[in-house]
Amino acid sequence: MIKSHRLILAACFSCMLPFGAFSEVPIVDDSENFALLEDQQEVLEQPIARQQADFPENDEESPLAYDEPEAASNTASNRDNAALLDKIQNLQQEVQELRGQLEVQAHDLKLLQEQQLAFYKDLDSRLHNNSPVQTAKKDITIDKPEPVKKTTSINNPTPVPDRVPASVSGNAIHANPADEQISYLAAYELIKNKKYDEATNAMQTYISQYPQSGYAANAQYWLGELYMLKKDYPKAIEHFEAVLQQFPSSSKSAASLLKIGYALAASGKNNEAKQRLQQVIKNYPDTNTAQLATTKLRSLDI
């Protein structure tokens, strides 16, 4: 019995040991750790809050960025736009004038080529057919031994050779465009070299020598341009009018009419200038000259 009681007590004591072990396990309180984490979070949150305070959202700052008066900004932009528009119009006018000059020079070059070709053809025909002057001389020498000289002393054949070569040489000069071409190109070269006084004299000499030549209209036009440079507007108008009256089908007609409008406007005769410019637009529509006339009309209306 005693042994049995001991065994029972020992068994009970062994069963109670685990409960004792479990009761001695320490209880961990994480509240302090949470408190530290919260403090650290507050410390970390403070710089972020400061950064947010230092850098507010862009939506709140945008009105401050445009704090200038709206009227002042509109006025400045309008001035800039007006200045830019004036520059563009001036550039367009310069481009149109350059195009007109290119067209004129292209026409002049074509005319020179045609006349040069005609000159070479005439020269070639003379070389193949022997010169007309030589044939005339041969004909004259043939006419000398006529029996009329023996029978009658009234008809003297000696003046005949003197008159015939004179007429032949005169026709040869008029048929040969080389002199006209050389004289005109020499005068035009003076214009390109800006020797305006010499060019004026050369063009006037050319017109007096070759009033009906193929370059007469060009010479009259360039005389008008030269007098425009000298601001002698009445003489400029006189030469431009000569192109319109004497050479109405010339390529210089449109430019001459336009320059008459320019000269009248420069002389203060705006009403007459407007009439001439309107004639340019009417007579030469859809051309660069008409565009220049339109631009000039707008400037006169301002």
TrEMBL record:
Where is the segment annotated Disordered? 54-76
Q: Which Pfam families match?
A: TolA_bind_tri (PF16331), TPR_12 (PF13424), TPR_6 (PF13174)
Query: What UniProt keywords are attached to this protein's entry?
Result: Cell cycle, Cell division, Periplasm, Signal, TPR repeat
User: Acidic residues composition bias: which ranges?
Assistant: 56-70
Q: Where is the YbgF trimerisation domain?
A: 76-133
**PROSITE patterns the UniProt entry points to:** TPR
Instruction: Show me the TPR repeat boundaries.
Output: 217-250
Residues in the signal sequence: 1-23
Q: Which SMART domains does the UniProt entry name for this protein?
A: TPR
Compartments where located: Periplasm
Under the heading Gene3D superfamilies, the entry gives: 1.20.5.110, Tetratricopeptide repeat domain
Q: Which GO terms describe its cellular component?
A: outer membrane-bounded periplasmic space
Please give a single GO biological process term from the UniProt record: protein trimerization
Which HAMAP family does this chain map to?
A: CpoB
Q: What does this protein do?
A: Mediates coordination of peptidoglycan synthesis and outer membrane constriction during cell division.
Q: Which family does it belong to?
A: Belongs to the CpoB family.
Query: NCBIfam families given for it?
Result: tol_pal_ybgF
What is the protein name stated in its UniProt record? Cell division coordinator CpoB
